[in-house]
Specification:
Strands 5-6-4-1-7-11-12-10 form an eight-stranded mixed beta sheet, with helices on both faces. The longest helix has 24 residues. By secondary structure, the chain is α/β, with parallel strands linked by helices. The chain is built from 15 helices and 17 strands. It folds into two domains: 260 residues, Acetylglutamate kinase-like (Carbamate kinase), CATH 3.40.1160.10; 115 residues, Archaeosine Trna-guanine Transglycosylase, Chain: A, domain 4 (Roll), CATH 2.30.130. The chain starts with 12 loop residues before the first strand and ends with a helix. 44% of the residues are buried. Strand 15 and strand 16 form a beta hairpin. The radius of gyration is 22 Å and the shape is globular. The site of glutamic acid has 15 residues, from helix 3 and strand 6.
Length: 392
């Protein structure tokens, strides 16, 4: 391992994300020897007191093999059907393989809403905690059978990062056929340099990840860097390593080549972490210059500074705060439902009772529920590209 870094053995809790190509061969189906080997690695870590959560892809790949679907891009409903067939097999295989080490597996299928909506998030988190407490290994995947285009992650890299922050893990390990981050795609550029340690995900680092064109596999480097932003921003380190050899976790412990992304040192409370990590805020509050300055100096967002309210959200939902230049400057939990927010926008806090008929909160978003963000939003075409890549 790189100098000064915690080894896998020193972590209390880690999340391991496994890409489809590692587990499933398009012709022959499950790669049982590989699965058995990683289960042995997991058992070894567990015996050393490390709690392991697994985010396993492979449902769609396995299902399409079982169903004998032709190669090429699948339609959404075909991948959903493939996932329905594949997930049963995948869960059984994990369960059988772990049972050789007397370890119980628990299947968790998550949708985007389960990680983004506060109540459901807390629910999912409680189940994960309970499974770990009982000594079981959570085997997690996206609930592909019900997740439709607008409401799905589509890639398990970002899902795994959300799981890592949800579970308060110290380390996220992304295993796929990519062994780490290079300055340029190594198959295209002979001068590409390997980066062993990334202190911060800067715009330069993001540029190295490129777009969909540089993707080597489903997920690709782009979603891995997005995952890195979610994880490291919440104080969770991330490793990108090749999962191709048998016993990949053991290999990392013994010093195999990988890229390490340092966690951000900023201590954020779990609540603020969760707010900042929301992928799909339920609405937008557009604010004026005065409110923007107030927010930046740590104040609450008052109704008076809100110029426009967009979206259908309820009190407690996450909303994006949009500054005077049209960019997101903060995220927070709405103190009012969208229609009430619209009615009191631009008005003084003292007028709220007269307008709504009851004395509500003075703030539209309280400072304890607010976190300043500078998240670059994905454009619609980027989101579409990502979805297409997922169905390939
Ligand atoms: N959830 C998908 C599956 O299990 C995989 C998504 C991904 O590979 O990132 O097939």
């Amino acid at each position: 391992m790189t100098r000064g870094l915690k080894s896998l053995d020193d972590c209390k809790r880690i999340v391991v994300k496994i890409g489809s190509a590692l587990l499933v061969d398009r012709q022959t189906g499950l790669k049982k020897a590989w699965l058995d080997a990683i289960c042995a690695d997991i058992a070894e870590l567990k015996a050393r007191g490390v709690e392991v959560l697994v985010v396993s892809s492979g449902a769609i790949a396995l299902g399409r093999t079982v169903l004998g679907l032709p190669s090429g891009a699948l339609k959404l409903e075909e991948s959903q059907a493939a996932a329905a067939v594949g997930q049963i097999a995948l869960a059984r295989d994990w369960s059988q393989s772990l049972s050789q080490h007397d370890i119980v597996a628990g299947q968790i299928l998550l949708t985007l809403g389960d990680t983004e909506e506060r109540r459901r998030y807390l629910n999912a988190r409680a189940t994960l905690q309970q499974l770990l407490k009982l000594g079981a290994i959570p085997i997690i995947n996206e609930n592909d059978t019900v997740a439709t285009t607008e409401i799905r992650y589509g890639d398990n890299d970002r899902l795994a990062a959300r799981v890592a922050t949800m579970a308060g893990a110290e380390l996220l390990v992304l295993l796929s056929d990519i062994d780490g981050l290079y300055t340029a795609p190594p198959h295209l550029d002979p001068d590409a340099r390997f980066l062993a340690r990334i202190e911060e995900i800067t715009p330069e680092i993001e540029a190295m990840a490129g777009g969909a064109a540089s993707e080597l596999s489903r997920g690709g480097m782009r979603t891995k860097i997005d995952a890195g932003k979610i994880a490291t921003g919440a104080g969770c380190a991330m490793i990108i390593a090749s999962g191709k050899p048998l016993h990949p976790l053991k290999a990392i412990r013994e010093g195999a080549h990988h890229s390490w992304f340092a966690p951000s040192g900023t201590p954020v409370t779990a609540r603020k972490t969760w707010i900042a990590g929301q992928l799909q805020p339920a609405g937008e509050l557009h604010v004026d210059a005065g409110a923007q300055t107030a927010l930046r100096s740590g104040k609450s967002l008052l109704p008076a500074g809100v110029r426009q309210v967009i979206g259908h959200f309820s009190r407690g939902d996450t909303v994006a705060v949009i500054g005077t230049e049209g960019r997101e400057i903060a995220r927070g939990l709405a103190g009012y439902d969208a229609d009430e927010a619209g009615r009191i926008a631009g008005r003084k806090s003292g007028e709220i009772e007269a307008i709504l008929g009851y004395a509500g909160r003075a703030a539209m978003v309280h400072r304890d529920d607010l976190v300043l963000t500078e998240i670059t939003r994905k454009t619609d075409s980027e989101l579409r590209q990502q979805k297409d890549a997922t169905h390939a």
